[in-house]
Amino acid sequence: MSISEQIEEKKNQLRKLKEELSIKRYGENPLILKTTSSDVQSFNSSPLKIRRCLRGHLGKIYGMHWSQDSTRIVSASQDSRLIVWNANSTNKLLAIALSSNWVMATGFAPSGKMVASGGLDNVCSIFDITDTEDENLSAFRELNGHTGYISCTRFLDDQQILTSSGDMSCILWDINSGSKITEFLDHNGDVMFLTLKPGDSNIFISGSCDGTAKLWDVRTSECEYTFEGHESDVNTVSFFPNGNCFGTGSDDATCKFFDIRVGAEVNNYEKDEILCAVTSVDFSLSGRFLFASYDDYRFYMWDVLKGEEVIAMNKHSNRISSLGVSPDGYALCTASWDKEIKIWA
């Protein structure tokens, strides 16, 4: 038997052992939501409508994030710009010139006073946006320490920020001093995204190209739990509104729903017709729906309980790179490589 055949045999043995352990722990069907919600009526919904369209970027948009008060959106594009938008009027409030056009991530501080960006320059740049009249705004803090691209930035508050990176790590930073507080190093592949627990920013989930999502506590540097199940890169993660569960999206064309309390996958979202990667996920404010964008220019709204497709929308002309539900729950925003941002309701 060749070495490759031996490796494949060991992989099959490992897969069978995992299945046996899962059955012992969760029963024959661990996807308990589909089982327990069989009597729940399917949700019939009219399609979402585009209420606003934000135009102004000249390059592919790679990231977007809502402000906590749901009135503003920050977007990052390969035109070397961060733009802060008024989500209601569609006006540009601020355009920030970046030193690198390979920007991949952005984020709003909960206070709304700062935004961050990061990308292939391996640097997280922090901008104070309280003065929107400054046309030559520069970063007041640049956080250097990652040895790979910055894939996601999320503020805990005005003093601390988390970053994830292609160097397989996440880092918690002190913004005032520009120094590292804690490094999180348990992943074996590029870390693609992170999400903070609602109401408790000490807890976060990261998704990685090693096919796993991991639960962390910023007060320690150890991984609290590893969630497996995807067959390829985990590109995106999002906490359920109550903080007890989270959703993931992967290159394997599926979304999954994990319950932290039992440490298991309790539902999944897939169709035979979907063959492309999931790029971004987020939940409705009620938690009943999961929104997921895909490489085929469309996004789906899934029934979280039943695992069924509710609607599929295709109004962008290129890849949807990022989506997010506004904190007040009234709107969904999608950002695309077609240089447009659309707000849905």
Lateral arrangement of strands in the main beta sheet: 1-28-27-26
Per CATH, the architecture of the largest domain is: 7 Propeller
Q: Report the principal-axis shape.
A: globular
Count of alpha and pi helical runs: 2
Largest sheet: 4 strands, antiparallel
Specify the helix fraction band. Answer: under 10%
Low-confidence stretches: none
Q: Give the helix/strand class.
A: mainly beta
Sketch the topology as an H/E string, one letter per element: HHEEEEEEEEEEEEEEEEEEEEEEEEEEEE
Q: Between the first and last Cα atoms, what is the distance in angstroms?
A: 58 Å
Provide the CATH top-level class of the largest domain. Mainly Beta
CATH superfamily of the largest domain: YVTN repeat-like/Quinoprotein amine dehydrogenase
Number of domains: 2
The whole-angstrom Rg is 20 Å
The fold-level CATH name of the largest domain is Methylamine Dehydrogenase, Chain H
Beta-strand fraction estimate: over 45%
**DSSP strand tally:** 28
Report mean pLDDT, rounded to a whole number: 92
Family: Belongs to the WD repeat G protein beta family.
Protein name: Guanine nucleotide-binding protein beta g protein beta
Keywords: Repeat, Transducer, WD repeat
WD repeats: 54-95, 143-183, 184-226, 227-268, 313-345
